[in-house]
């Protein structure tokens, strides 16, 4: 059974986001970004309450800005998703979860060393240029169970 319900349009949008955010980090890096997207959809806690679709996750606005840099800068729309990114997105939507993004709700590229916390949330690991952060234990149980 899939981690969340989804449509072909969700796969295509998620695949474009994965490519825009992490193409330079290869398929593994794109899978980690996809993992965060699915986790945010599942979360229903902290900054991610009432997100019911992939579209809502990707176009979420926090603090007056889109949550994802690729949406803020518009580069999520520059290129279509290729079949490889769609395959990776489906893999995330169906079953794939792996450290350091297994429970992560946030990631960013600090341009240097990863800080031990990100807005009070603990560092879960790094892959290439991206640092991943998961919610503190007890603050977002759906992510850990989903």
UniProtKB/TrEMBL annotation:
Transmembrane segments: none annotated. It holds the Pfam family Hydrolase_2. This is N-acetylmuramoyl-L-alanine amidase. The lineage of its organism: Bacteria, Bacillati, Bacillota, Bacilli, Bacillales. GO terms for molecular function: hydrolase activity. Residues 24-133 form the Cell wall hydrolase SleB domain. InterPro entries: Cell_wall_hydrolase_SleB, SleB_dom1. Coiled coil: none annotated.
